[in-house]
Design a protein that fits this description.
Blueprint lengths: L1 H6 L5 H8 L6 H19 L5 E3 L4 H6 L5 H16 L8 E3 L4 E2 L29 H10 L6 H8 L2 E3 L2 E3 L2 H9 L15 H8 L3 H11 L4 E4 L3 E2 L8 H11 L3 E6 L2 E5 L3 H12 L4 H15 L3 H12 L11 H11 L7 E9 L2 E9 L6 E8 L5 H18 L8 E10 L2 E10 L1
Parallel strand pairs: 1-2, 3-7, 12-13
Antiparallel strand pairs: 4-5, 6-9, 8-9, 10-11, 11-12, 13-14
Helix pairs in contact: 2-3, 3-5, 9-11, 13-14
């Protein structure tokens, strides 16, 4: 397009010179440059152009929490005002982006704006693939049996009145011969999620564990949010995470929404960001612990627990049995989507420390009762682990479970661990 504008005899020479010599633009130069370009397009084509601006919020996200944020916002404000307000040479404009950014006023002074967001009904089916379309896609490319896997990984979004699959991830899943992965999450940074994790307090940590365990949390959500609020207001982070696709938001009334992690792709993103600060050997130990727990490999569980708690990363967290329980529950987020993980959940005749209820018969249910020993006597470790296992049995923490179920009595003494195991078929 620029080549034609530069070379065409139909474009006035003064307009061409004014536009292409603009260089580093002042406000006045920017205004004349933008208007000149639109005027050239109208002159050449005989119709006023339509302005399309995609990912308008990308510069805002990239500048967030950086020292050039104010400069970026100022440039954007001038550009949008000069391009979209008082420009007689455009028909209309379409601006798209992930977030409906408020308060920064980059669209200050503009009139006649019509806004559609993830809660609007006008274009709800146009933001992604519907379930019938996904079935057709899987069948068209020769693998109708892959529909359930596609659903597990990329379904779960609610736009207006439509249930939607992530379009980019689904297409990349098919393109890569139906190999699941975090395709959409790998296309952009996860700064918002990192801000959420950096700001965790007891309340938000509980929300994180609930979300990672497949539960919903209820929050006040505003589609129009301010990036400046993110640092000090975690509720603003929830709003951004909802409109950006990390969370699915379903309206419950009075600006209250039920929030949940939509699919397995996002479960994986959550877990990877939770464990990102950890050293590689700690992350390997976490994965080995989960694998060995599913495979009833008791020696490997004990070895993995020693590796985990011998690292200084957890020392500041571990004061009592409840702290060990929270660390292990966070580790269990690595199986998010596969299990519903409960901490101190009402079960049978009491409260079980950790219950991992499987969401597929391919995996076992897991019940863990933790004990912490202050003794250096190895026999005491064995006795307390047996006490944990006996407590599971006598209080029937497994009463609501069905199918193959693994019971673990675990006693921790500083860095050492003793694990006892029993299997039930319920």
């Amino acid at each position: 397009g620029f080549k034609y504008l530069r070379d065409s005899d139909l474009v006035d020479e003064d307009l061409r010179r004014e536009y292409f010599s603009a260089g580093d633009l002042s406000d006045m130069q920017m205004e004349r440059s933008v208007i000149s370009l639109c005027q050239m397009l109208e002159q050449y084509h005989g119709v006023k152009p339509i302005v399309l601006i995609d990912e308008y919020d990308n510069p805002v996200n990239n500048a967030f929490n950086r020292d050039f944020y104010a400069g970026v916002m100022g440039s954007l404000r001038r550009f949008y005002s000069l391009t979209l307000k008082g420009n007689p040479y455009i028909s209309f404009a379409v601006v798209t982006g992930v977030m409906q950014i408020a308060k920064e006023s980059i669209f200050s002074g503009l009139n006649n704006l019509a806004v559609d967001n993830i809660f609007s009904n006008n274009f709800d089916e146009r933001y992604g693939f519907t379930e019938p379309e996904v079935k057709d896609l899987c069948a068209y490319y020769g693998h109708p049996e892959k529909f359930e896997e596609a659903k597990e990984w990329y379904d779960g979004y609610r736009f207006g009145d439509a249930d939607i699959y992530n379009p980019w991830s689904l297409l990349m899943y098919i393109r890569n011969k139906f190999k699941p992965g975090t395709y959409w999450a790998d296309t952009s940074g996860n700064d918002i999620l990192e801000t959420f994790l950096d700001g965790l307090d007891d309340r938000t940590y509980g929300d994180l564990v609930a979300l990672g365990n497949g539960k919903t949390v209820f929050k006040q959500i505003y589609p129009s949010v301010s990036m400046r609020d993110v640092g000090g207001d975690l509720d603003a982070v929830y709003s951004i995470m909802a409109v950006a696709g990390y969370l699915n938001a379903v309206p419950e009334g009075d600006d209250i929404y039920s929030l949940s992690i939509p699919n397995r792709e996002m479960y994986k993103v959550f877990y990877e960001n939770v464990t990102r600060p950890l050293k590689m050997d700690v992350r390997i130990a976490m994965r080995r612990f989960l694998d060995s727990m599913e495979r009833k490999d008791v020696p490997k569980m004990e070895e993995s627990l020693f590796m985990l708690f011998s690292k200084n990363f957890f020392d500041i967290l571990l004061r009592d049995e409840a702290d060990y329980r929270l660390v292990l529950a966070t580790i269990a987020l690595g199986r998010g989507g596969r299990y519903d993980v409960g901490i101190e959940r009402e079960a049978g005749n009491g409260r079980a420390d950790i219950i991992m209820r499987c969401n597929s018969p391919a995996y076992p249910n897991i019940v863990v009762e933790l004990k912490k020993s202050r003794s250096d006597d190895p026999e005491d470790l064995e006795k307390m682990a047996e006490e944990g296992l006996r407590q599971i049995r006598t209080r029937e923490y497994y009463r609501s479970l069905k199918g193959k179920t693994y019971l673990y009595g675990v006693c921790l003494q500083n860095k050492r661990a003793k694990v006892l195991f029993e299997e039930l078929d319920l």
